[in-house]
Specification:
The chain is about 70% helix and about 0% strand. It has 5 helices and no strands. Helix 2 crosses helix 4. The longest helix has 24 residues.
Length: about 120
């Protein structure tokens, strides 16, 4: 089970998006789009983590991202991904990836809707 007790990483990432991309509250379509991007990034990073990528490799990849917002999102997710163990079994790896993706979406959704539950 992926244990990340702090939603800060996803909320901060989405808060940055809000502050830089919009003044008005986002529509439900905008929320879904933003959170889909966030969860997709989280999934990709955890897949790489579970398949042996080093933090250095992932940070170097993120540093080559031209868009500063996307670079920040990737960096936050990389930092959190390395709080999760790298598992041996394919089943555990897959579960870790799925859970991390879901946390990325849920944290984004809570940040953009103001739901702090």
């Amino acid at each position: 089970m992926v244990k990340i007790n702090n939603w800060f990483f996803a909320q901060l990432a989405c808060a940055v998006a809000l502050s830089s991309n919009a003044v008005a509250a986002p529509s439900s379509d905008e929320i879904m789009k933003e959170c889909a991007i966030s969860s997709s990034i989280a999934r990709g990073i955890m897949e790489k983590r579970q398949h042996g990528a080093s933090m250095r490799q992932l940070m170097e990849d993120a540093s080559r991202t031209e868009d500063e917002y996307m670079k920040g999102i990737k960096t936050l997710f990389i930092e959190q991904a390395f709080r999760v163990p790298s598992y041996e079994s394919a089943e555990r790896k897959s579960k870790a990836v799925d859970e991390f993706e879901n946390l990325g979406y849920a944290g984004c959704y809570m940040a953009l809707t103001g739901d702090k539950k």
